[in-house]
Design a protein that fits this description.
alpha+beta, 247 residues, elongated, 22% helix, four-stranded antiparallel beta sheet
């Protein structure tokens, strides 16, 4: 690429929503920006944003406006599919008016119809594949309501592993969040992707799940996002997801 071609690096950063151009210039001067695995500190540097891999503080940024990355709070009773031949409510109904054109969206971690919470959709097939692959161990966090009072030591038991009918499974973290008479709210973090794994694990230790919400996938959090709403992932969230899966 000739020096006169391409786009100035600080302009690319500002267009990607990373920072104002002035702040982006300081980031470059401070050695916080990499282009194709090389730290760049020259303000006049021009790049091809469609080809170059650009990172800020080690986290990749995306400047491809054809890529779609969405966070959805899937309501209870809705299916995770993009369409349903039986006419049941599905995620495709939510995104139909948000994503124009024939963009094929991939699910990142489906949720059962009776489970609420965070679902990621993207047309970046490689990112979706890696986020779902157990070898990258991207953690997912859930809030589960179970009946009764959870005994001390249950967390250790779940962390050590439980034998299920399709092999052992274990959680990465377990905590009691709240207790009310007859019910306990627990937080479970694991990187397992097997079907209904949280429900199966808790049922196996005698605490069937009454309500379940997924609150986090990696660094992406549901926060106060209401059921049925969609938002575009921030560049910071995207960068952290790319970093987590080595992209």
């Amino acid at each position: 690429m000739a020096e006169s071609e391409g786009v100035r690096l600080q302009k690319v950063l500002s267009q990607a929503g990373i920072a104002s151009r002035r702040v982006a210039e300081k980031m470059i001067l401070d050695g916080r920006v990499e282009v194709d695995d090389r730290i760049v500190t020259e303000l006049g540097t021009r790049v091809d944003p469609d080809v170059s891999v650009i990172r800020v503080d080690g986290a990749r940024i995306t400047v491809d406006d054809t890529l779609v990355h969405l966070a959805i709070n899937k309501p209870k009773g809705m299916h995770s599919t993009m369409s349903d031949d039986r006419g049941r409510p599905c995620v495709g109904d939510l995104v139909e008016h948000r994503v124009r054109g024939n963009k094929k969206l991939f699910h990142v971690g489906r949720l059962d119809a009776d489970t609420e919470g965070l679902l990621l959709l993207t047309n970046d097939g490689e990112l979706a594949h890696r986020l779902m692959h157990p070898s990258y161990e991207v953690p997912k966090t859930y809030l589960a309501t179970v009946m009764g009072t959870v005994p001390r030591g249950l967390g250790r038991k779940l962390r050590d592993g439980i034998e299920l009918d399709d092999g052992p499974a274990r959680v990465d973290d377990f905590a009691v969040v709240d207790t009310v008479p007859g019910k306990t709210l627990v937080r479970v973090t694991l990187h397992e992707g097997r079907k209904r794994i949280v429900r199966r694990l808790l049922a196996a230790v005698g605490f069937p799940v009454k309500e379940l919400v997924r609150t986090e996938i990696g660094a992406v959090s549901l926060g106060d996002q209401r059921p049925g709403t969609i938002r575009v992932l921030t560049q910071k969230e995207l960068g952290t997801l790319y970093k987590a899966v080595g992209m």
